[in-house]
Amino acid sequence: MMNKYDLIDRLNNRFTSLEIGLQDLHQQLEDLPLLAARVFSLPEIEKGTENQPIKHITVSATVGTPARDMALQHYQRLFIHHQGQNVSSKAALRLPGILCFSVTDSQLAACQQSIKYINQLKTELEHIITVESGLPSEQRFEFVHTHLHGLITLNTYRTITPLINPSSVRFGWANKHIIKNVTREEILTQLNKSLNAGRAVPPFTREQWAELINKEINEVKQLPKKVRLKIKRPVKVQPIARIWYQEQQKQVQHPCPMPLIAFCQIQSEIELPKLGELTDYDVTQIKHKYKPDAKPLRLLVPRLHLHVEIEGESII
């Protein structure tokens, strides 16, 4: 780990630069001719309900100048005190949507430069906190809140997505799993690291936590060396945007936790992009595309979402 004081100094320095960069972008965008704006407010997540399964999300749409103002404010909402007292600080704020501005070449270049600078600072801050600090995930919270009290890290890390001359922007929901192949040795290394750290992880005492880790290590050690292991972790339902570019005949899908920014060049003579709606999410209405055959999995370590692939059969 590098010099602690240098790290803290750079953390504060980058964060101050980010706040100034976001204020500058706010001014730049406010001065551009607004062609269209549409944002979709989602219900706030109350404290203590972060891990409850989501079955329904009610969406409330705002359009025009009020939508633009909500979006510009949202980019700068980086702290817990930017939201209500009963709102969870563990859940990031989300405001899917789209802002469409008319731009000249010089305005486009200036805005692109500002967004690139902001996104670079966001990436650097994430690297300082998650990598350079050398801290495991459970200790990062304390580190961040000692120096930037009340910071919502996920809001800080999320980059701003610019679009240039899109033909249409449609919205929807993505509901999926993150699946990652891992080896027996990688998992044992991870478990031993947790054991050797000698910490207590609530609600366990230090002794109970060590006992749990030892039990998990023994279970993994009993597996054959060539066993196929997967981490299959559910991801909470996310708003997404599908962007269509008519000239290139190309569709691009973006996660959409905050408003995208579409720049429409004056001289391109492309019509205003067609904008879709984000409808309410209802888990019973989700249609899954055809999935190829997959090997059945047996859950081995629930805490890590670690599964063992069962050989010799397949399921759909």
Automatic annotation (TrEMBL):
Domain of life according to the entry: Bacteria
Main location: cytoplasm
GO CC, one annotated term: cytoplasm
One MF term in the entry's GO annotations: DNA binding
InterPro entries found in the cross-reference section: DNA_replication_term_site-bd (IPR008865), Tus_dom1 (IPR036381), Tus_sf (IPR036384)
This protein's UniProt keywords: Cytoplasm, DNA replication, DNA-binding
A Pfam family assignment: Ter
Compartments, record wording: Cytoplasm
GO BP of this protein: DNA replication termination
Coiled-coil spans in chain: none
Family membership noted in the UniProt record: Belongs to the Tus family.
Purpose of the protein: Trans-acting protein required for termination of DNA replication. Binds to DNA replication terminator sequences (terA to terF) to prevent the passage of replication forks. The termination efficiency will be affected by the affinity of this protein for the terminator sequence.
Entry protein name: DNA replication terminus site-binding protein
UniProt source species: Yersinia thracica
Originating gene: tau
